[in-house]
Amino acid sequence: MLITFNFENYRSFTNESGLDMAATQIRENSEHIIKLGHERILPVASIYGANASGKSNVYEAFKCMNQFVAESAHYADHKEEYLKHLPEPYAFDRQRKKEDTSFEVYLIIDNDPKERIYNYGFSLNEAGISEEWLNVKSKTASAFKRIFLRSLNHLEMPGFDERTKENIQTVLDQYSLIISTGALLKIEICKNIRNWFMKNQFTNFDDEIKSGLLEHLLPAD
Question: What distance in Å separates the CA atoms of residue 107 and residue 144, rounded to the nearest whole number?
Fold first, then answer.
């Protein structure tokens, strides 16, 4: 279940923007609110605005994040393939075009009996993945615990055992995400996060060709 999606430096958005699915305290239609852990989440949201105001780019940003999580393990040692799928940064500022594009979500994995909240995100540019992180918070905890944090010159993985750390470090590439790589290595938490993304469904009702049709990414295993 998606709680929050944030992104920055993508297409028509230069500053951090996002979609927050957390319900407010308004009681009207409260019977439709989904309650997981201590979270109250909206089952659906709509984005309204004038033509060319960026509505479709919010949709495209989330879809882009999903596709990168699903496919980036296959970009290892293939810079051309990586660049082909690299998100399009803000186009109206020369400096921003050289800077990172970032994506981040807060989510609860479907059917998780512990209803844990995961915070996952990454930043990337033409040179590769510049940062990636995964944190988790249990239903009763007040703060997130780090599972892994990756930057250009640093990698820490307190949430993995030593053998898992070695396996990831052996195959990790600058063009692929830890989540994608770890899923191929059958690391459970990586598979669970990747599969959450791959099961998401997408539709853009502004697209006359695809109007009303759902797209989705299927788990590889």
Answer: 13
